[in-house]
Amino acid sequence: MKGAQMSTPARRVRGLGAARSGTKHFWHQRVTSVAAVPLTIALVIIVIALLGRSHAAAVQILGSPIVAIIMLLFIINTAYHMWIGMQEIIIDYVHEDKLKLASLMANTFFCFAVGFASAFAILKLSFGV
Amino acid sequence: MAELEAGTTTGPQRPRPLSPHLQVYKMMLTFVMSGFHRISGAALYFGILLLAWWLIAAASGPNAYANVEWFMGSLIGRLVLFGYTWALLHHMLGGIRHLIWDTIHGFEPAERELLALATLVGSISLTLIVWVVGYLAMGGPR
Fold first, then answer.
1. Is B7 left (phi over 0), alpha (psi -120 to 50) or beta?
2. Segment A52-101, tens digit of pLDDT
3. Structural domain of A80
4. Does any CB of chain A come closer than 8 Å to the CB of residue B77?
5. pTM for the model
6. What ipTM does the predicted assembly reach?
């Protein structure tokens, strides 16, 4: 073998690198960013349409199927997109092992919590109770 | 070990190449816009709490919703919302710039500068347009 080849042939064939997930996150960040463009434009329009309205009117609009579906898509797409993005930032800047693990975990908790809380609110607005 | 000693370009003695840190680069628009894409992303990461708060309040009832409206209507709330709008639209345009680069287009010096400038001018213009439309939708500033 020429030079110091540190990886096994099987590992090179799989091409998954040190993170064992290859370019999955890179690709998913692209997919979610493409989805985010129309969803962001839709969100801005929805927010403008709700400005200055009473609570009852806001509830009615946010709970209507089309608006609720767009809001749900925005929230789910954004939660995943920001999870990948913040993980990237943490990996770049946090080098101390324990702090890095804690940050990565906190990132996951935060994105899940914000995503699920917002999704629950939208569903409650849609189905009432 | 024989392998390591045989090669002249490998082994632990040879200093590994290091990537130069931020301060060695000239402050160019493309450089600043690259950094700002990440900064705006991080700002949006925490800014989404505003959206979550707004939705949860709407689902909770009139009193909770009134609290959100009071905060968003205050001077600080409006400043935060204005910043959020700008970060959102800037990150969106910066993302489109990255998607263009992903197709292997726009890498020439003049194109890079143009894309960076378009991102900045576009995000500021779009933010102002959104706020003008927003105030018009409410029937003028209050």
1. beta
2. 899 999 999 999 999 999 999 999 999 999 999 999 999 999 999 999 99
3. 23-127
4. no
5. 0.85
6. 0.87
